[in-house]
Write a structure and sequence with these properties.
Elements (H helix, E strand, L loop, with lengths): L6 E3 L9 H17 L4 E3 L17 H17 L4 E10 L2 E10 L2 E7 L11 H4 L7 E5 L2 E5 L11 H4 L1
Parallel strand pairs: 1-2, 2-3
Antiparallel strand pairs: 3-4, 4-5, 6-7
């Protein structure tokens, strides 16, 4: 068992609506993280679409294109595990989601559970809440996936993880 995992936080500034440009930027940062010896590279919430995508989410083609951009990005991710924010679509519902990518494939998708709806945040207008906390094994460790608000509440997904 490897006792240590090196994380790279790619705090990129995604452009709302620029799916291809955002994916290209993430591929570039993943390569830099890998070259620096990182095992995992973390990207921001909704990094594929840019944040906040707001009414672009009302366009089914935009949502489908965001998933296609994620899948294309996954195919470029080799030699590093990546956690990437995107919009998932299931059964006519949209989710603020994070994909765990490894070996060129999406291995796990997590749906944000706690959706903020105050101040500048209007996530309940667009997204359905996830129902299950996510954990996965990597390098002999158990890793939990959360998105923003999920870690702000003591009784939230982190407690379940």
């Amino acid at each position: 068992m490897n006792s240590r995992i090196r994380l790279a936080c790619a705090q990129i500034n995604s452009t709302v609506g620029d799916l291809k440009g955002n994916a290209a930027k993430m591929a570039e940062f993943a390569d830099k993280a890998k070259a620096s010896g990182a095992d995992i590279v973390l990207f921001p919430e909704l990094a594929v679409t840019g944040y906040p995508p707001e009414d672009l989410l009302l366009k089914p083609r935009f949502v489908a294109d965001n998933i296609a951009a994620l899948d294309a990005l996954a195919g470029k991710m080799e030699g590093i595990l990546a956690i990437v924010g995107f919009v998932d679509s299931r059964a006519d519902k949209l989710y603020n989601a994070a994909a765990v990518i490894y070996g060129g494939k999406v291995r796990l998708i997590y749906h944000k559970i706690l959706l903020p709806n105050y101040g500048v945040f209007d996530e309940k207008r667009y997204f359905a809440p996830g129902k299950k906390a996510a954990v996965f094994g990597f390098g002999g460790h158990i890793i939990g996936v959360n998105i923003c608000e999920d870690i702000w509440h003591a009784d939230g997904p982190t407690a379940e993880q």
